[in-house]
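ugh ok fine here u go
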Amino acid sequence: MKHESFEELQARLRIRFRNVRLLRQAFTHTSYVNEHRQTALEHNERLEFLGDAVLQLTVSEYLYRTFPDRPEGHLTRMRAAIVCEPSLARFAEMLDFGAHVQLGRGEEQLGGRHRPALLADLFESFVGAVYLDQGLDAVREFLAENVFPHIDGDGGLLVKDYKSTLQERAQHVGLGPIEYRISEERGPAHDREFVVQVLIGERVTGTGVGRTKKEAEQQAAAEAWRALFKPSQ
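structure:
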C-alpha cells in the first residue's frame, strides 16, 4: 500500500512549508531519535511545547471573537474542551497524522501511531511547526479549515463523534436515512485499508479511508458533515 508523502500531505492541507525540516521534525517521535542516534533529525517535543501555547492563544482568540456574549468562565470551559487530549487526538486522526509519524520499533509495536496521547502531541507539534515556519495567520487558516468548523456553536461543545453528530443533524433537517457501505478493501491482511461511503437518502455524501471500518466510517461521516453543514468562512 502506498503511503502519502510529506509532499502530498502539504498539498492536501494546502500548506507549503518553507523549511521542510520543521515539518519532518514535527512528525519525529523521541523513540525514533533514541533508536537512530546517527540521524540529524530532532524530535518534536520542543515543537509540541510551542504548539500548545499557540493553540491556547488562537483558540482563545477565536472563542473571544465568535462568542462575544459569553462570560470568561464559559469561554475557559469551551477552550478546555477543544485543546484537551481526546479532542486534539481526534483532529490528528481525522487528518491521518498518525500515518506520517516516525516511531522507534518498540513504540511502533505498541501501536503508538494510534495512541491518543501521541496523536494529541503530534497535533500540537504540527501547529508549532506551522507557527515557526509561517506565523500566526497560517495557524489561524489551518485551524479555521480543520478545527473551528467542528465546534458546536449552540453549546460550544466540540464535535467528537462525527457519526452521531451527522445522524442527529440529518434527522433534524429531514435528509433521510443514513447508510454506510464498504466500497473497497485494499492492502494485505496485516495492513488492510477500508474505503467507506456514507449515503444519505441513497445519495453518496462522503467517503472515508481508514485502517479499521470504524475509522473509515468516522472519516466518511466527517466529510459528509463538512459538505452539508460546514459554516461559511
